[in-house]
Amino acid sequence: MPGSEVTVRFPAAETVPVEVLLAQVRGRLETGDERVRAFLAAFGRRLLRPALARRHPELGSLGFFLRPSELARTVEGLGGEHVRVPRGLVFHVPPANVDTVFVYSWALSALMGNRNIVRLSPRSGPVAGVILDTLHEALAEADPVIGATQRIVSYDRDDAVTGALCAACDLRVVWGGDDTVNALRRHALAPHARDLVFPDRSSFAVIQAAAWSGAPGAARVRAAEGFVNDAYWFDQAACSSPRTVFWVGTASDCDAARADFADHVARVLGERGWGVDAAMAVEKRVAAYGLAADGVAERVEFRGNALADVTLVEGAAPPRRWLGAGTFAHARIGALAELGALVERRDQTMTHFGFAGAELDELARGLAGRGVDRMVPVGGALSFHRVWDGVDLPTEFTRLVTVTR
Amino acid sequence: MTSGVFTLGGAEREAVLAPALAALTERHRRACPPYDRILDAIGARPPYERVADLPWLPVRLFKTHELRSVREDQVFRVLTSSGTTGQRPSRVFLDREAAAAQTRMLAATFRGVLGERRLPMLVVDSRSVVRDPALSARGAGVLGMMNFGRDHTFVLDERGRVDAEAVKGFLARHGRERFLIFGFTFMVWLCLRGLGADLSQGVLIHSGGWKRLAEQAVDNAEFRRRLADECGLSSVYNFYGMVEQIGTVFLEGPDGDGLYCPDFADVVIRDPETWQEAPPGVPGLIEVVSTLPTSYPGHVLLTEDMGVVRGVDDGCLPGRRFEVLGRLPRAEARGCSDTFGQGG
Lengths: 405, 344
Description:
- The complex is a heterodimer.
- In chain A, β7 (171-174), α10 (178-185) and β8 form a beta-alpha-beta unit.
- A 7-stranded mixed beta sheet of chain A has the order 2-1-6-5-4-7-8, sandwiched between helices. A 7-stranded mixed beta sheet of chain A has the order 11-12-13-10-9-14-15, sandwiched between helices. Chain A has a two-stranded antiparallel sheet with strand order 3-18.
- By secondary structure, chain A is an alpha/beta fold.
- Chain A has helices spanning 18-24, 34-47, 50-55, 57-65, 68-76, 101-111, 126-139, 144-149, 159-168, 178-185, 209-214, 217-232, 251-272, 278-293, 357-367, 393-396, and strands spanning 5-10, 12-17, 83-86, 89-93, 115-119, 150-154, 171-174, 194-197, 202-208, 242-248, 297-303, 307-312, 327-333, 347-353, 374-377, 387-388, 391-392, 398-401.
- Chain A folds into 2 domains: 5-198 and 389-401, 3-Layer(aba) Sandwich (Aldehyde Dehydrogenase, Chain A, domain 1), CATH 3.40.605; 202-377, Aldehyde Dehydrogenase, Chain A, domain 2, CATH 3.40.309.
- Helix content of chain B is 30%, strand content 24%.
- Chain B has helices at residues 10-31, 33-41, 61-64, 96-114, 128-131, 137-146, 164-174, 185-191, 211-215, 220-231, and strands at 57-58, 77-80, 91-94, 119-126, 149-156, 179-184, 202-207, 235-240, 250-252, 259-260, 265-270, 284-290, 300-312, 320-327.
- In chain B, β9 (250-252) and β10 form a beta hairpin.
- In chain B, α1 packs across α2.
- Chain B is globular.
- The chains are: A alpha/beta, B alpha/beta.
- Chains A and B meet through α10, α14 and β11 of A and α2, β1 and β13 of B.
């Protein structure tokens, strides 16, 4: 029946009916399987080749994540008194636009010994193509069990295919936002199967104004570079990219620090040649002017098309939606603890500058799970970690067998 | 073409429009709080010496926000545009005065090519587009133009097929006198050429954009040449306009040498990097200005169309002569909040 077929992109093959795909994915791995570790390490090594990592810095980060020592740490970190076993067949639905997310999700699941089917959007970007090519290079030297147990497929919207994959899997992993989660939830899972979902999230940065102004020049340059990476790599649309910057301190400290910060960011953008095209420039004007019309923004400043700074009216709710690549809302608060009243469930990553560890611990405890799953230094927003969105992925990708002697 | 509302040369027009639009800016600022907040936030303040100094609004704000400069009870008509898929339509609020002015000025704009009296009219569309209770932008466009004609005859039947008999009947009645043909550019291209009819007495007015024709590698010159060769149609006028500046149309000159601005309007081409006015010959985003929007702050709008000024005071009509080059693509982000549901 046409329409219930999928194109197998890894290991590259032809188009097959979904039933055939499901019958093909077989083989047994164990949690922390050496053959998977060898394959992932070989794949990661290729991603770190200088030419590739220079062209696609996000692939460098991915390669770093797949270093043998990092994989070993993940496996050894499991420990515990129970026997840890794979879940079985895991169906991954990554977002179409962030090319590397599917690899993190899939790699950790494979490392935990699962058979995997990843649904890669037919609209996925050029980086996904590079990743697939590199996976094939690594596959050539890998144990055949890799090719037998792992599949990356593409298909156009097709409820029959999605339904069959959902019914067959033991765990469904959905990235890509509320609409995707809701769309996938219409498809039933087997009674024993579980859902792991990553709905829409938004993120912010928080900077201690006096600490910024007092930091050595080199530290400020490094932080500005990190902030630019956090925000611009994925057009500020990654869920962990900061959209609002909270400034902590007195009004005069915050004004001074903000002005210096904007200069630093603009300089980094200039040096790197970051720009946005005319369509994005218009998008940003529409969003920023809209905030002003709504009475949320009191000032809107553009430094070229790449950087738009929006000053929020005091007491206005910080905007969480995407405002176009390189549009930052700014707000001042008197103390870090004031974030308690502003944070929402959907806030994911808080990038910070100038705070002591104890202050951050205290804030995390004070928020008590009402929002913010990650607090990382400015520059670390996009660093993937096996604990993501408050979820320990290796744990989710495995089951525990109790063995009492 | 008689001059009518196409009389002002570049410098003269600037001298008339700059103060009129600056006054309109202050008037809207007082009457439309969201507009005032935008201008406050971007630091816009008079004096505005030149038209190009005036603060502009991105036209898409009329889709995302309700912007009106009259009280709710003074709103006489609300116009809506069809947005592209998934977008809200624009909403444009007219009071009686603005509604009357737009109708009057639209008529004045077309008077030069159509004359004083209503002409028999061939509509290159189906009657069903104007009957639909939820009138589409296309339907509204057809309905608006129907004011300029009489004995309206539709080229397509209710099912969207070319109705050769209806056209034949129309031409038998009116084919030897001047008559008006109106349609969307792509429909005109698709439907008129195959008719095998003599349209040499017709005056064609068309609009709607060149995107689908560009896909077939048909440009304006080719369009005009083929219509002349195949239908004898040599009186052809394209126009550019949008619901957010209703009543203002930029009309092609008789030689097809570009679009001209009526006296109460103008265009500024902006470099999308510096936002400064681009000189003639250099493409940029089209900003349209018009004194007609008095009931909503749509008098200075940045469109999402690319265009280029071909010349000033050097064509068959005075003022700027420009060309529309096409629409900007929608900005797309590489974000992770991407939907599986949208056919990805």
